[in-house]
Amino acid sequence: MRAHEIRNNTFPNIPERICRLGELAENLWWCWNPHARMLFKMLDRQAWKDSGHNPDRMLKALPDESLIWASRDQNYLRHYDLVMSHFDSEAYSGDYVGGPIAYFSAEYGLHHSLPFYAGGLGFLAGDHLKECSDMGVPVVAVGFMYPSGFMQQTVDNNGWQQTQTQTVDRESASINQVYDENDNQIVIEVPHIHPRLKAALWKVSVGRVSLFLMDTEIEDNPPWIRDIAKQLYTSDLEQRLLQEIILGIGGHAVLREMEVAPSLLHLNEGHPAFALLEALRCQMEQGVSFEQAKERLRGSSLLTTHTPVPAGHDVFPADMVEKYFGPYREALGLDRETFMELGRHPEHPEEGFNMTVLGLKLSGRCNAVSKRHGEVTREMWQPLWPERKQEEVPVGHITNGVHLPTWLEPKMRMLFNRYFGDGWIREQDNPAIWEFVEEIPDQKLWRTHYWLKVKLLNFIRQHARQEWILRRSTELLPAMGTMLDPSVLTIGFARRFATYKRADLVFHDLDRLKRLVNDSWRPIQIVFAGKAHPADDEGKRLLQRVVHMAKDPELSGRIAFVENYDEQLAQYLVHGVDLWLNTPKPPMEASGTSGMKAAINGVPSLSIPDGWWLEGSTPTNGWTIDSGPGEEQDRDEQDAAELYRLLEEDIIPAYYTTSETGVPHDWVRIMKQSIKTVAPHFSARRMIKDYLGFAYGTYSQGGN
Ligand SMILES: *Cc1c(COP(=O)(O)O)cnc(C)c1O
After folding, report:
1. Nearest C-alpha to atom 1 of ligand 1 is from which residue?
2. Ligand 1 midpoint to CA 478 (Å)
């Protein structure tokens, strides 16, 4: 890869002895390494918090005295030297043979200070890059910058979602402009597309992995092009098409500019599928025929699909595609009909150009994201292979996993360190390691968990306090969770407010729920969080219903809605609640990952049998809401009834049966089962190993 310059005069205020703090702040490796985070926190706890855990912003704001103190403090320097030696061995890439994997995704969930994500797809991409860095799998990633596209959520007194856009401060985040030899920020142009589209380059270092983001909000573009980055997953189809043109075709221009010759293209969902066309065009430029180029691409491309319903895939009207692709398809030597055929669904040709169809037709391999989702996907796309039986449709599956060092809470990790032995993290996908969970005394695990629950409730109260100060209205205070009680069984439900996730299932029989919530001895409380897409009024109504419940005095302040679900709130929730609730309408949850994040921290799931839970559940690591076969229209009714029954008969008794010292041993047994059965099999380590076997080939550098 081309050596690109990143200016290193960003932090002139840092003393020489600790000057590499600036380098550390500019590589997200810090965000999944507790010792590195500690290095920033030790400088000034308050400033660390005030910066929103953003070391770039913090270092720029810190008074010189703090830095001078650190550069002379022996204790600080010992930590500094150790972290830097780990940084050198874990965040710089060694040599490898062959080209890297080029990973394309419309969103990346890496840390809350880089808000270029909407949800699960983004966190999967983020965890993918972090794990590839840890394992030394060579990856170069490309994506899109949404400078003002990050949506902040509040709800008004009536429970209606309000969204504010917050402009990302490009200057103070772990993100850097990429410069050419003449000190100009590199700008790429999307080839053969009219009108001309340009994007400036930014780089995010994710350990050893480089992620390049394209920024269209630049002078070189006319105003209407600058606007296309306003929103992630905009509902304006034309803007969305332009975003995807830039992501896929511009993404290749980025790789060329950086002198990256990938050995494999990996597309995360259909959004970047134009990248496949551009791979063909580049080969044809070298004199290869279209058919030959297609054949070669088969050996060097992979599509990961995430959406189990036809309506979830991007389809663009044929005229709109022709408007932009006229010159491009001529460069490919294709007439309009042949070109459109590449994105045409055989059963719905009138719909237009379908990005997933394009991806499936051109990529060599395709995988779904759980076993069940594999079945659903093969059924859904069988029309593309009419001569094959459903089980022979060439779509495999690799079940999602989560990046352990990111989602395992540091206190919990310290507890594991003590009982698992040194270096267990290197063997994190070995089930035998996790058997050592049994050696952790129940009381220790319970105390750690309880401490995390208290931390969550403090965080929720602090948010409510700030909102009260800001809004001068007390109306929403009870609904925001100010009356939550750490001694009460706490259920968490945090996900996008899409109707299929059925956030309101638990309110189906209100009287029954009120009895559970208001039980004097063994009550329950529920914390909700999540955003609705700004254009999804049905999702907003669902959210409003939850807020109305949270405001209802008859539910005693034991239902809470916490605003602005993001990576940080997700961390608090998956660490701190007692039980993770998941109630999608099957088979709509392709995989789901939040339940995995919870489980590795000892938070078991109460879930509908769908997505990953079909593979992850055992008779003793959580609870499955299995109401059996029934009429579709009664589904909510039956699922809700089973949900209440499990709470009443199994879950509440297990939670509230404690020993004299206050430890619920039955519950802790389930916590331990949840940790040890989920962590090894649903880690990103296991997932990346599966990708290596499925499509990536056998890259290996040893890793850590
Ligand atoms: C993990 C995560 C998601 C995805 O979780 P699902 O279980 O797929 O709904 C979404 N948003 C945030 C902030 C997350 O951390």
Report:
1. 594
2. 25
| Model confidence at 6: pLDDT above 60 | no
Average pLDDT over residues 74-100: 89
Q: What are phi and psi of 346, to 5 degrees?
A: -60, -30
Least confident of 148-157, 442-451, 640-649: 148-157
Backbone angles phi, psi at 534, to 5 degrees: -55, -25
- 683 φ/ψ angles, rounded to the nearest 5 degrees: -90, 155
Long-range pairs, 379-388, Cβ under 8 A, ≥24: 380/308, 380/309, 380/310, 381/356, 383/345, 383/346, 383/347, 384/345, 384/346, 384/357, 384/360, 386/346
Ligand 1, pocket residues at CB < 6 Å: 119-120, 123, 495, 565-567, 570, 592-594, 597
Contacts of 645 (CB under 8 A, 6+ apart): none
pTM attached to this predicted model? 0.96
Angle subtended by helix axes 290-298 and 274-285, to nearest 10: 130
Neighbours of 698 (CB within 10 A): 6
Count, residues in the chain = 704
Exposed e or buried b per residue across 71-87, where buried means at least 16 C-beta atoms within 10 angstroms of its C-beta? beeeebeebbeebbeeb
Q: Are 703 and 138 in contact (CB under 8 A)?
A: no
**What pLDDT was estimated at residue 92?**
83
- Single out the residue of 165, 26, 173 nearest to residue 91, CA to CA: 26
- Bridge partners of 490, per DSSP, are 525
DSSP H/E element including 268:
strand 264-268
Secondary structure class of 110 (helix, strand, coil): coil
* Residue carrying structure tokens 């037709």: 361
Question: Which tens digits make up the pLDDT trace of 241-254?
Answer: 999 999 999 999 99
Bond preceding residue 317 cis, omega within 30 of 0: no
Choose the residue to mutate in 307, 495, 687 for probing ligand 1, maximizing ligand atoms within 8 Å of C-beta.
495
- Rounded-to-integer distance, Cα 425 and Cα 413, Å: 9
Average pLDDT estimate for 175-202: 93
pLDDT tens track for 519-529: 999 999 999 99
Residue nearest to atom 3 of ligand 1 (CA): 120
